[in-house]
Amino acid sequence: MALSQLVLGGVEISFDDLYRRYYNRVYKLCLKMTANVADAEDLAHDVFVQVQRKLDSFRGESAFTTWLHRIAVNQVLMHFRKKSRKAESVTETGEMPGDTTYMQRPQALPMLDRIALQSAIEKLPKGYRTVFILHDVEGYEHEEIAKLLGISAGTSKSQLHKARMRLRQLLLEGAQYSCCIEGSDSVP
User: Fold this and answer.
1) Helix/strand/coil for 100
2) What are the residue ranges spanned by the domains of the chain?
3) Using a CB cutoff of 8 Å and minimum separation of 24, what contacts does 63-66 make?
């Protein structure tokens, strides 16, 4: 399929234009998933290498951005799989050390914080939750969200702001609740 057929209704577009147009979206997604700027930059570049290799496999059955998103997610997951394999290292003399370690996937948040965040997201009203996930998790821009949901970009921005404020409130309430519970065991 010709590159011009992929994006924006047949407008002629070069791969460089495609890269410039979608790099920020891919980078933000990689950064959200890795929580590491250097890894996100490397992975975003790798995503576009994959896009260039696999461009012929795009069938146009979904939006180009959906296909690009899937490639980016797969690239980051592949990165984590490689990091979780046994990390072999050598000493300065070139010998294998007797003690090799396994590298674990870096966690952006400790497990309890991720559970608290997921719980707070689930408590958001549907409109807030939908916009929050599309923007902050999936990386869509407000104009794209507006088209997807049939709302204005201003409404999307407003919903996102309200979602973030409500999340802060829910997370603070949860933190205060857990502090009260922890504090109740240590009564002098």
Assistant:
1) coil
2) 3-87, 109-185
3) 64/6, 64/7, 65/22, 65/25, 65/144
Amino acid at site 112: L
Report the alpha-carbon angle 166-171-173, nearest 5.
Answer: 95
| CA-closest candidate to residue 96, choices 107, 87, 106, 83 | 87
Q: Which CATH class is domain 109-185?
A: mainly alpha
- Report H helices in 35-110: 37-54, 64-84
For 69-82, how does the pLDDT look when each residue is reduced to its tens digit (9 = 90+)? 889 988 888 887 77
Does domain 3-87 fall under CATH 1.10.1740.10? My reply is: yes
- pTM of the predicted protein model: 0.46
